[in-house]
Amino acid sequence: MVKQWYWYDWLMFLIRLISSISLTFTTIGLQQYFTLPIMVLVLWQLIAFSVPWLCLQLNYKYYLFTEILISGGLCLYLASFFPQAYIAFLLYAFFIAAHSASRAYLWSGPISILLLPAIIKQLAEQSDYWVMVVHIGMAFIFGFSFHLLVLNHRQGETIREQNAVLEQYLSQIERITLAEERSRLSKELHDTVGHAYTSLIMGLETLRPQMATDTGTESLNSLLNLARQNMEEVRGYVHQIESPHEALPLLQSLRKLAEEFQEHAKVPVNFHAYGEEYPVMKQAKTALYRCLQESLTNAVRHGHSTEIKVSVQFEPQQTRLEIQDNGRGIEHGREGFGLSAMKERAMILHGHVAVYTEQGKGTLVTCTLPRQTELKDEVIRLLVVDDHPVIRESLRTLLEEQQDIQVVGTAEDGEQAIELCRQLRPQLVLMDVEMPNMDGVSASRAIKESWPHIRILILTTFEDTKQAMEAMRSGVDGYLLKSMQPLELAETIRTVHRGGTLIDQGMSHKLFAQLEAGNSGDDPSSIQASSAYDLTPRELEILQFVSKGLRYKSSDGTVRNYASSAYMKLGVRNREEAVQKAREAGLLE
């Protein structure tokens, strides 16, 4: 059936069935007293049983009318011959009251209790009007009491279901939060402690011939001070206190790190800066600082370098950090925890870390981050659109925990989302796809036509490539799945608000595969140009996506590996250089 049946639905059905069968047999036994043929009366009884019940199951709007007109009409006809037949209407009065949703009892009650007895009185003068009113009224009261019992049971079921969903969400949030915190602390402690102990070990090695001299004491004190400073930094991360380097400008913190490493590891570090320094985001500053820290540590620990060159370039569109050493290089395929953490930090900020190494010829590490200046005290005005109230409120609760995100409103469908955009003017809309009245793609298209500056991030349950392509064509700025972690969602909202375009990694793989499957009709000149650089169809498709500003969000390395392979074949270091060279070579339109 259309709805799930509970015990009270079966009870009402059985009562209706038994009463209808009983009334039918009674009518057949008294058929000689009625003017209508018995088959007409039986058919009328069958209609009175089935039509109101079907209306109740399929379309409640017509139920009360059919119950009163068909069932009530049958009882009026019988009562016109036998006044006591009004008793048959008692069960129907019970049904009408039990199924009077909202405030329908305000009109169904007077019709059942007052109007029908009055009509019966007119048809059979010997009947007692007030007795009928009392009897039908009592049946209606019992039916309404049953209605309240059912309503209370349904509300209890709804509350239990919502509690179960909320408990599941809370359990999920707790697991995700703990996992995120463990991951964050492990990365921070690895970078900090690894760098500190490498500096200490290298410094202590240099003290062997100096311990007998006056300078030995001074060097030892310097190393002890370094140990205390790093211990304070570790303690600061554990207690979520701001690291000392975060209070300094980027260039000053990087230069200080290089100077301290040179002093204690006794390895020369040549530091150069190019371009006019501009403020960068806190996350970008930390990523560049950790990249330099890990690179200096690896240069001495694994590469046994004797000289390191560091350069920071403040370019109009990006900030680039390069660390070049003269060590023996990194073994092919050896990518430790620190290097993976460096790449992951850069990817979160939509940057790129590249490592160029050759045995015996040193290692070059480049970290390139797009320029995104820190916007202090800025709060992102967010509108959440989803047809499920539990998901709406859960998203509101999760996102409002972020200091820079304010949920200014929630909508349950596309039409309401458009109206709230007109009233509230949010900066970003978190949009579901499948919704009643107007779906998310149509609503996104309408919002972009009226307010192009509003950023839209699609958040859906299923991976549908056709739907994703339609959404991207409608102008949305991101397409993600609801299975993503809350902290990742908050960071994605910030990225899209700053102008980024994101698409879920699984969806991006499917889109690339779909485009590759339909790649047989490509321009021959483009194919010839790509073959000159030995680019595969997948690498060429990724270059085309990158040139259009699409960024993939992925902790998985598959897409990133294709991009890195394309960069190496083109002889470039980052996406900007790759796009420029690909255009010059005729690989892109």
Question: How would you describe this protein?
Answer:
It is a single chain. This protein has 589 residues and is α/β, with parallel strands linked by helices. Helix content is 60%, strand content 12%. It has a seven-stranded parallel sheet with strand order 7-6-8-9-10-11-12, with helices on both faces. Strands 1-2-3-5-4 form a five-stranded mixed sheet. Strand 2 and strand 3 form a beta hairpin. Helix 6 (129-206) packs across helix 8. The longest helix has 78 residues, at 129-206. The radius of gyration is 37 Å and the shape is elongated.
In a nutshell, what does this entry contain?
By secondary structure, this protein is of the alpha/beta class.
Mean pLDDT: 76
Rounded radius of gyration (Å):
37 Å
Termini Cα gap: 55 Å
Helical content stands at: 55-70%
Main features:
589 residues, alpha/beta, 7-stranded parallel beta sheet, 12 strands
What is the topological layout?
Layout: H1 7-29, H2 38-58, H3 63-81, H4 88-98, H5 105-123, H6 129-206, H7 214-238, H8 250-265, E1 269-274, H9 282-301, E2 308-314, E3 318-325, H10 337-348, E4 352-357, E5 363-370, E6 380-385, H11 389-399, E7 405-411, H12 414-424, E8 428-431, H13 440-450, E9 455-460, H14 465-473, E10 478-481, H15 486-497, E11 502-504, H16 505-517, H17 524-532, H18 537-547, E12 551-553, H19 558-570, H20 575-584
Parallel strand pairs: 1-2, 6-7, 6-8, 8-9, 9-10, 10-11, 11-12
Antiparallel strand pairs: 2-3, 3-5, 4-5
Helix pairs in contact: 1-2, 2-3, 3-4, 3-5, 4-6, 5-6, 6-7, 6-8, 6-9, 8-9, 9-10, 12-13, 16-18, 18-19, 18-20, 19-20
